[in-house]
Amino acid sequence: MSLSLVQSRALVGLASPAVTVEVHLANGLPCFTLVGLADVEVKEARERVRSALQNSGFAFPHNKRITVNLAPADLPKDSGRFDLPIALGILAASGQIDALRLAAYEFAGELSLSGQLRPVRGALSMGLALRSSQVNTGLVLPPGSAEEAALVPGTRVFRAHHLSDVVRQFAAPPAEESAHEPGWVRLSSTPLPACARYADLSDVKGQAGAKRALEIAAAGGHSVLMVGPPGSGKSMLAHRFAGLLPPMDVDQALEAAALASLAGRFKLAHWAQRPTGHPHHSASAVALVGGGSPPRPGEISLAHHGVLFLDELPEFPRSALEALREPLESGTITISRAARSAEFPARFQLIAAMNPCPCGYAGQPSDTAAQGPQCRCTPDQVRRYMAKLSGPLLDRIDLHIEVPSQNVRTLVSSPPGEGTEPIARRSLHAREFALQRQGCPNQALAGAALDAHLHMQADALAFLQAVATRLAWSARSTHRVLKVARTIADLAGSHGTQAAHIAEAVQYRRALSPP
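-> structure tokens emitted (515 positions)
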């Protein structure tokens, strides 16, 4: 048979649409033509496939006109993922393997010149696409990619190390199957681990106020801005925050892992762990929100269902910080280009840290007996430093807290602080209380739902009105305080929002201004 069809999948954002690799062998002037809106690395598959077939001991039809079509033609294709299906299509069209048996499988993998299979990006997206289509199709992938796809429950995933391992399974006539063949293995689904491992908050001594704020943030899904001098523990607190969040379910773990797989960052050891992204402050807006052609996820999407930690917040480019406004509200980011657009999820919790002034030591003891570093910034320098953060961005951060420096006695002599486990237990209990009441975390409440579930007492309402008028809060700031107060009430086990809960929430909404 001179025509063969092999099934594979492309990558468009987080989706993995089906692609049919059509291979036709015809008489005529020998050539190898590849069509179907293929990118440069896909067109280079001609040389990789030719060498891989020859070095693996298979006949390459040099005397034929080879035409490979990647259908549908209007779907962009990139990367070397189509090397394996193209090679199998040539072998099937030339009668070296059984073309009919290929129909029950989908293939993806890059070929080395020797025929070894190399991993490809987005294997988890392929598994999720098969799961959503509810078809009983086997997925053949290289080592490294097969383990990713096997995380999806209910998928039939086969791992092959070499092109010859795949050909042996589809030989004509069929070869005898060997249960102990090392090059071809069917993988079983990987279950969620009993518990994910995170660094413990007990490593942070003191800072009871900051830990309380993180507990509130974990319970309600709120964002946090920590302000304090260098070495006060802001980074330690941020890197331990993920341990306070509830365990991931299967869908959340698969979605987060699929995004990491698209960026080539997924590691099986981090399966079902909430990600903590911490980009350098020199990161551009494209690095944070995503971009490129084809569009790739940025740091905010790679932190989906996890934590995005932005240290030295005022040092980030202004354009990069302003690009965070919409994702903080919507939980998604749409990257639009002239040729196409892609939407990535970006529901993360923002933990930001900054110094109180350019030198970092504003508010430190300034008497003559103090030997430590002291702030020498002028009021104008502090004002310019604070002005790097726009009001609309600060409006979208729920909790603004101070993280003061600790004295030597606290650091050396005090016992370990409260650990992650008891704080996480309280946060989880409050979050479940909110989910049973309204079906979403408090941070997601808006409009009529916020009014319906606040259950605010009269004295609490009067107190809030007085504070909001005095501080000239915007409507967004007022609503943020209400959401935080509702979370504080949940932690206290209170059905209604009391004045004490509003008062504590107001303390976490201080304005950033020069001392």
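Residues 322 and 393 are 7 Å apart (CA to CA).
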